[in-house]
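Support reply, case 0932

Customer input (verbatim):
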Amino acid sequence: MAPALLPSPPHPKPPLLHHNPSPARLLTRCAASRRDFTIHTAVAGAAASASAAMSRVVAAAAEEAPPLLAPSPTPPSLNGGAAPFLGGIANTRSWSQYYGSGFSIRVPPSFDDILEPEDFSAPMTYYGDKAKIRAYAARFASPDRSELVSVVIKPSNQLKITFLEAKDITELGTLKEASKLFVPGGAKIYSARAIKVKDQEDIRTYYFYEFRFDKQHVALMTTVDSGKTYIAAATAPETRWEADGVKLRSAAVSLSLV
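Our regenerated output:
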């Protein structure tokens, strides 16, 4: 019977000891996951903070950046509010071009030349020792005469007293300062721009104003050369501007010196 008392001990215990390290390895993996989670959370938080800060910077820049001649922004008007840059310009190359004394301008199709012959042939009327300059250097009207395109030439020293011959419109003041010379008091200004144009061998500055006054909508372009101020204005009733404003604005902006 003695040999029957010598069986080997059962084998289940070693596997139990073999599996003891497993929880430690599991805990190690969990600890690594928690560290990774903490790192990823910190990175995500930092990215979100940076993104929020960048959004605030962009928003602040958008608020502070003035709009202009760059066509994309919407410029503020001189008396508050905002208006689109020039509101749209048509291609005027197919229009007839009128050449006057030192200037040229494009004439909208179907507009008639209404400058009276006597004014054209006799630019000045004399009163004693003073000469009265004719009112218009050019004048055109729509068939119903409700829309007008006019050019006026004035000595610059009549607009601003100076002993020197003005050669650039900036000598009459900044865009805002000069608006008092070209825009009637009480008018609602929709747009105001200083525009630089390549003119022969030099860069010439033009001032553009668009405004409403006494139920009339006006687009005005002006510049200075050799002591003379050239002013082109296109006008129409406010009720007609939505339909014909681009055409009239384009006529005014086509003013150039020759």
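We compared this against your earlier run and they match. Two observations from our side: The helical segments are 13-18, 21-64, 117-121, 156-159, 175-182, 238-253. The CA atoms of residues 135 and 231 lie 12 Å apart. Please reopen the case if you see a mismatch on your end.
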